[in-house]
Each structure stands twice: as structure tokens, then as C-alpha cells.
TrEMBL record:
Nucleoside phosphorylase domain residues: 5-242
Organism superkingdom: Bacteria
Keywords: Glycosyltransferase, Purine salvage, Transferase
The protein's name in its UniProt record: S-methyl-5'-thioadenosine phosphorylase
Family assignment from sequence similarity: Belongs to the PNP/MTAP phosphorylase family. MTAP subfamily.
Species of provenance: Maritimibacter fusiformis
HAMAP family, per database record: MTAP (MF_01963)
Enzyme Commission number: 2.4.2.28
GO biological processes: L-methionine salvage from methylthioadenosine; purine ribonucleoside salvage
Subunit structure and binding partners: Homohexamer. Dimer of a homotrimer.
Gene3D superfamilies, A to Z: Nucleoside phosphorylase domain (3.40.50.1580)
Catalytic activity: S-methyl-5'-thioadenosine + phosphate = 5-(methylsulfanyl)-alpha-D-ribose 1-phosphate + adenine
Binding site for substrate: M185, D209, Y210, D211
Taxonomic lineage of the native organism: Bacteria, Pseudomonadati, Pseudomonadota, Alphaproteobacteria, Rhodobacterales
InterPro entries tied to this protein: MTAP, Nucleoside_phosphorylase_d, Nucleoside_phosphorylase_sf
Length: 291
């Protein structure tokens, strides 16, 4: 099938340049409106879709980002590969502000968000043991290296609710006891929902600060973060620009099973399924529900 690369841009990344036929389109979903219109077009012959996670002008807080609508809208548009770009704090001395981390694991400490498309009337349990797509993550890693970015392969992202930053005790717990590498507020439930929607998902975390554990850097300073965001966003655009050339215009079935995550996930018997929920699942689970 045709590949379409979706990019969800985090804090600091509200648009990408260079798309042929660039058009902001409105996508309606059964889960409400996405964070903003979606910028569509092609880059090096590959279809692209870009969505600013917080909306242009940074309207949505991490807790109120419409995560389900965002993922549904990307799926509905035909996205096959979804790259999440996010600002984050670092728990490691050797992961400095300005560095990128290709995240491959998450610990979820969020509490206020809808985390699944499924529920009463259609219950599904997908595996999240490996929440990111290794092939898409590799492409992001290669693209970052080619763009001259200092990039680290693999890392555990602690997803916190926010909007306040962590206390020093929390920061030390996540770093020293839980062994996390970076911290942010948005990759959960985004990754969960991308898996339910059978998308290949990769997370590119752009470090802006050392959170609050570092004896020489003190507490998180939002002014410092904002100063780093601009340079990080330029690097992210350079990374994204290399993805079409690396991935190509055709999306083969994912060797890691991202595109078949729902094959054995649905538990509710067909005759017991809620028709209203089934209708809302038309894009996300259409592949398995049509069959
Ligand atoms: C700008 S600092 C806090 C803010 O930035 C990150 O957003 P995103 O993940 O969308 O790049 C972090 O998660 C917080 O929402
Ligand atoms: N230290 C931090 N904690 C949570 N989210 C962040 N986004 C950027 N820096 C962060």
C-alpha cells in the first residue's frame, strides 16, 4: 500500500516546510476534533501529514490534547507511519539539552486521559511490550544522524500528567530507582492509541533540560526550555525532511506486527458488540471489523 508519513509535532514544532501541494485540511472524527487542522502534501514523492499536538498557538495542555481524535484523524487520512516529536527533560548526564533520543519504552504516570478506543461493547487488549516500531525508529535514528543531530538509540520515557514539572523527589525516583532516561507529558496515551490503530509509531524525544535532579543545573527553568525549543525544532524539521528518502513511497506490511495488532485483540463476541461503538471504530479498527 501507499506509505503516508504522519508527524505529530510537540512543543516548539507547529509546522513543517517544503511539502508539495501543502494544504491544511479539517478532519472530523467520531472522537471529536483533533488538536488542529492537519497539514498534508508530499515530500520527495511520499505522502505526508503533519499535526501540531498542542495546536497552532499552543492551545491544548498535555492533559487536554485530544489524543484519540488525533490518532483517529491520522489513521482516517491514510497515515501508515506515525512519528511523534516531543520536548523532554533528561535524567542522564550523557543525554544533554539539544540531543535527541529515539525512545523505545514508556512508563505511564498519567491519570486524566482516555487511553483506549475500546471499552464497554467492544473490549480489546493489544500488546504494548514493544510500544514503538523498530523499523520506523531505525529510520528516525538514521535520519537524525544524517542531519548532524547528536542522537541516542533507545531510552525509557516517563510520561507524567503535568502541567507542573516534577518535584525533586519525583525526579530522583524516576532517575535513580526506575532507571528512566527522559521525561515528558504527552507520549502516553499517544503510543497506546497508535498501537490500537495499527500504526507503526516512533518517538523522537528532543531534550530541552535536565529536569530537577541535576546538582549543577538546579530546577527546571521554563525560559531555558523555550530557548532550546527553537533550535530543537529546526533539527526536527531536518530529521523529518530525510524520512521520505529513507522510507520510500510504499509501505510493506510491518515485519514487527504493528499493522496487525488487532488480529487477536478483540474479546467481545460479535453478537454482543455495541453498534454505536462499532461505528466510532470505523477508521481505527475497520480492517478487522469489516472481515
Ligand atoms: C514546553 S515544556 C512542557 C511541555 O513540552 C512537552 O510537550 P510535547 O511532548 O508536546 O513536546 C511536554 O510533554 C510538555 O507538554
Ligand atoms: N523536565 C520536563 N518534564 C516534563 N516535560 C518536559 N518537557 C520538556 N522538559 C520537561
Amino acid at each position: 500500500m501507499d506509505r503516508m508519513i504522519g508527524v505529530i509535532g510537540g512543543s516548539g514544532l507547529y509546522e513543517i516546510a517544503g511539502l508539495s501541494g501543502a494544504t491544511w485540511v479539517t478532519v472530523d472524527t467520531p472522537w471529536g476534533a483533533p488538536s488542529d487542522q492537519i497539514l498534508t502534501g508530499t515530500l520527495d514523492g511520499v505522502k505526508m501529514a503533519f499535526l501540531p499536538r498542542h495546536g497552532r498557538g499552543h492551545v491544548h495542555s498535555p492533559s487536554t490534547v485530544p489524543y484519540r481524535a488525533n490518532i483517529d484523524a491520522m489513521k482516517r487520512l491514510g497515515v501508515t507511519d506515525l512519528v511523534s516529536v516531543s520536548a523532554c527533560g533528561s535524567f542522564r548526564e550523557d543525554r544533554a539539552p539539544g540531543d535527541f533520543v529515539i525512545v523505545d519504552q514508556f512508563i505511564d504516570r498519567t491519570t486524566l486521559r482516555e487511553k483506549s478506543f475500546f471499552g464497554t461493547g467492544c473490549v480489546a487488549h493489544v500488546s504494548l511490550a514493544h510500544p514503538t516500531c523498530p523499523a520506523l525508529s531505525d529510520a528516525c535514528h538514521t535520519a537524525a544522524g544524517a542531519a548532524g543531530i547528536t542522537v541516542h538509540k533507545g531510552g525509557t520515557y516517563l510520561a507524567m500528567e503535568g502541567p507542573q514539572f516534577s518535584t525533586m523527589a519525583e525526579s530522583k525516583l524516576y532517575r535513580e530507582v526506575w532507571g528512566c532516561d527522559v521525561i515528558g507529558m504527552t507520549n502516553m496515551p499517544e503510543a497506546n492509541l497508535a498501537r490500537e490503530a495499527e500504526l507503526c509509531y516512533a518517538s523522537v524525544a528532543m531534550i530541552t533540560d535536565y529536569d530537577s535532579w541535576h546538582p549543577q543545573h538546579g530546577e527546571v527553568d521554563i525560559a531555558e526550555i523555550i530557548a532550546t525549543l527553537g533550535a530543537n525544532a529546526d533539527k526536527a524539521r531536518a530529521l523529518v525532511a530525510r524520512l521520505p528518502g529513507l522510507l520510500g513511497a510504499a509501505h510493506d506490511p510491518c515485519a514487527h506486527g504493528c499493522n496487525t495488532a488487532l488480529d487477536v485483540a478483540l474479546l467481545t463476541a460479535p453478537e454482543a458488540r455495541d453498534p454505536a461503538l462499532m461505528a466510532r471504530l470505523d477508521a481505527v479498527a475497520g480492517r478487522v471489523l469489516k472481515g
